[in-house]
Amino acid sequence: MTPDQAPPHRETTSRYREHQEKPGPTPSISSISPASPQLLRLVARRMIDIKTFLYRPRKLKMQSGSQYVLKFRGVRLTVPGAAMKNKLVSLEAALAPIASGVTLAIGGSLLRRQPNAAVRELIRRGVKDLTLITWATTTATDMLAAAGAIRRWEGIYAGMFSHGLAPNFRRGVQSGAITARDFSECAIVARFRAAAAGLAFMPVRSLLGSDMAARNPEQIRPMTCPFSGDKLHAVAAADADFTIIHGYAGDRYGNVQWPVVRDSDDIDQLMASGAKRLIVTVEKIIPHEQVKAQPTLTYIPGQWVEAIVEVPQGAHPAACDSIYDEDEEHLRLYLEHAKTPEGMATYLDRFVRTPRAHDEYLHASGASARLPSLSVQQG
After folding, report:
1. For the segment 127-141, what is each residue's pLDDT rounded down to a tens digit?
2. Residue 54 pLDDT more than 50?
3. Quick check: 136 and 154 in contact, CB under 8 A?
4. Are both 132 and 106 inside the same structural domain?
5. Into how many domains does the chain fold?
């Protein structure tokens, strides 16, 4: 359908009249160069704007020569596509933008997929004064607490799961060095959903009857539903400057895949979807062709990701689902050191600050030697 054939029920606007009065050749914006993802998004918005009054888009597909072709009824627009960016970098380069004082969200659930390699690098760099937003966190948060890196924590749980409380985090909260703000599971999920939707808050019902709102009035406020009149609470969006998660495998363009069904308590994908700047560490880098061959395994698309890093055993001493279990031997060693601040300082010197890179940590901790016994497939 061409503009002069638009159905009569279509609303007449100045934009519509302009296209009626000035019919011309098939629109093309292929001369716009250089192309970028930002340009393509702007073009897409422009097409949606035109669609409202003129056309109904049929498809957007990639053709040879890195060109996006938008096909409308009777109209064909060609957009130069940007070459996909190689986002594979070193751990040091990926974390370099994270400075003291930022708000940082970290993924993982209990003793699974904790981004511990990234946390150790942040401690080596001396990053401090963090506002930390988490789900159910363990080793990553406790190490940051031991290093004096956390100013404020927001989440549902901070502990060591089957090993009891998180000793360094507990000392930080009890001493007043760390301000802790608790949320229910539903509330923290709502906070990440609000961030993903670009909203300032999300309403929840789960906080009724609790004292969480009274303890955190700056982020939890009572509200009345404008439709039903029900009493609810509004929880502020999880507005993190950076987000770090640990995953199974990804390609150099940042597409992250998981080959097994993820557990119901895995909200890493939700955290990633609302991230301003997302850094992903993965157990291994896989060919892009493998990602294209099994696209349904991709749960974090590359356009969300700022940097991707290959970090084998990057969750150690925690587990990484379907690959290796938590290292009970090292966790017992960790907790023995964590009984006192002095003991924990010794641990940080030996296993965090002295190793200059992740592979040196794996050797110092004995993780490399114990990997066969920890492997889910072999152990």
Report:
1. 999 999 999 999 999
2. no
3. no
4. yes
5. 3
